[in-house]
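Bit of a strange request maybe. I'm writing a small parser for structure token strings and I need a real example to test against, not something I typed by hand. Could someone generate the tokens for this chain?
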Amino acid sequence: MKYYIIAGEASGDLHGSNLMKALLKQDNKADIRFWGGDLMQAVGGDLVVHYKERQFMGFAEVIFNLRKVLGQIKFCKNDIESFKPDVIIFIDNSGFNLRIAKWAKAKNYKTHYYISPQVWASRAGRIEKIKKDVDAMYVILPFEKDFYKTYNYVVNFVGHPLIDAIADRPQVNEHAFRKENNLSNQPIIALLPGSRKQEITKMLGVMLSLVNDFKDYQFVIAGAPSQDFEFYKTFIKQDNVSFISNKTYDLLSISYAALVTSGTATLETALFKVPQVVCYKANAISYQIAKRIITLKYISLVNLIMDREVVTELIQGDLNKKRLKQELTAILEAKKREQLFLDYYELEKQLGGRGASETTAQLIYNAISS
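Reply from user aminoacidic:
Good idea to test on real output. This should exercise your parser:
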């Protein structure tokens, strides 16, 4: 079969790569063409566009780059028509993917969506379009199935692919890892400022402002594969700050605490059982727009899944040195850490067992080969 997969950022690349491996087990002659990243490319198939070329965060940024976005949409449609896939698989990235899905459905392509757009967060009116344009939806958060059910849309809860991604990774030798990356023996506070330049610019400076107040700890920036060290270097003004690129899981596996930009990384940090403070600051225009259309009580996946505040969220004006110092101090103390560990184990239970990629691949293959 011919599969056309569209993923739009680092997390989509990770989940796309595992889905591709699972599809190849179901269909060892699969012809896969995709928009994604290095991890998907390592599996095989043909990379069309790398996600680094299409990273725009927030409403304002998309508007400012609208001509480029529209050009990519047009190019994608032409590329699909040339490839003539048996199925198009969308992974998250709703702004782009839902536009392609509408066009694809009108052209009678089979449309499958892995990792739902966050319609439960804002603009629930999109669900009617999804029901019309998407043949099958595979959701990874436990509350999503019930949410869609209220709109009479039956979806498949397949479990969360991060469970597999973390469980299957090689164990890290902490001593060797520290030596290889010139780290001291001090406990590590990991800084995960996001993967896009806009995120890093807003978050990293505030995170690094705490370095001199926690001299018994070593701060380590988790560099995203999409950004060069030279970009991060402009923010580093203190000693006792290290930088490690594209090894976030290895870093989290030996970290004592973390400051994390809201997104998939908050869930990854929780699954590694690392106490964290969630940080979020956006472009002022984007934030004002988002505040008016997002209906959620929380922004971090950890709190959303647990439906209560497990990890502290510092949003926009609350993300300042004083508050961040208070919250980091709290998660370094035994009482808060104990409670977080208990909550993290409960969170993992709710996410379901292993096998999200395999389950999804089997369902897709069965649907298009029958």
